[in-house]
Design brief:
With 436 residues, the protein is of the alpha/beta class. It has 16 helices and 14 strands. It folds into 2 domains: 196 residues, NAD(P)-binding Rossmann-like Domain (Rossmann fold, 3-Layer(aba) Sandwich), CATH 3.40.50.720; 206 residues, Rossmann fold (3-Layer(aba) Sandwich), CATH 3.40.50. Helices cover 41% and strands 13% of the residues. α8 runs parallel beside α11.
Length: 436
Amino acid sequence: MRVTMIGAGYVGLVSGACFADFGHQVTCIDKDVGKVAALNRGEIPIFEPGLADLVEANMRQGRLEFAVDTSRVGKAEAVFIAVGTPSRRGDGHADLSFVYDAVREIAPQLDAAAVVVTKSTVPVGTGDEIEHILRQKRPDAEIQVVSNPEFLREGAAIQDFKHPDRIVVGADDTRARAVLAEIYRPLYLNTPPIIYVSRRTAELIKYASNAFLATKITFINEIADLCEAVGADVQEVARGMGLDNRIGAKFLHAGPGFGGSCFPKDTSALLKTAQDRGVALRIVETVFAVNEQRKRAMARKVVAALEGSVRGKTVAVLGLTFKPNTDDTRDSPAIPLITALHDLGATVRGYDPAGMEQAKPLLPAVHYCCSAYDAAAGADAVVIATEWEQFRALDLARLKGVMARPVIVDLRNIYRTEEMKRAKFRYVGVGRAGVD
């Protein structure tokens, strides 16, 4: 099938490359001339394992191309909207201006029987407004509007796309459903369930899913605080909970709070949608508030590990992205942590395997280093803020040898306390006993 992707950002680029790999003819359109030129040279603007090879292979085979000209949409049977929907400044609503601008721009070029599909994460009712715009612009056409939310994890997006837990299609029209079924037909061997629902239901499934996962993270973080108070181990608590198949082990990892491009903005947008309709989402409100407080509170762990003050001291922060295997620093817990350490008078040295260029505009006062050991050189404490594989097997003897003081604050619990005790580090984790 001929597929056009409007937006060559994270979702658009991954989805477009995977659709091309399914055998479809895909054009990704983006208004950023520099980005399109770079993509056509084979330069990938984001860090995602396996994506560069996937893009290169499908461009070489002629199934994937990148363009700026929206006139290309006229040949497409399905046009996916995959532009950004960031939190709107001032009120927390999802900013849908990019979505609606894209729809207005492509409307004149669309085939009269095209299917327009929202891949962007959008609040309930957005598809209705898109349909209204298209009816105004193209009253003669039979263009159908479908919601097909993405469920991609940064760092594992290609695996998620090709082996999905489910595919949600929000459409009442049988022709539109048939088009989406044909697009996803190459996945039939993996037998993922395709769930056909109303458009509004599909839009809400995405927000409800992210809010629930955010709730699991926040719940185990609060249990971690209780574990510290009563002398329990949050990792053992989480394992005991996760073995119950009604609960599951995923997202029960205590840490500094959730960040990234999805959970913070999606929980905020869900809350605003509910507030606009007079519905109270008390659990989601608490999740959002607790998470924001937690990120700022992590600096207190570092202060406590350094006898109550970081003024005049050097702290090495390992990990600047919100999770490993991505270069995404949006709403990363490392940002408020480092900001608080600076405010308290500390010098911060930082290292991240992929996210330093993205972090520099957000954290200009950090001394950026070329390795974990370079960052730790002369440091009074090392803070593990992101659980990159590179940080899981550090040479502790070497690390201790370059540090001014042997103190590790492990906000991701990637080390065992017994290991730290043998290495003679002062060790502070989250929700479990430390080592003095």
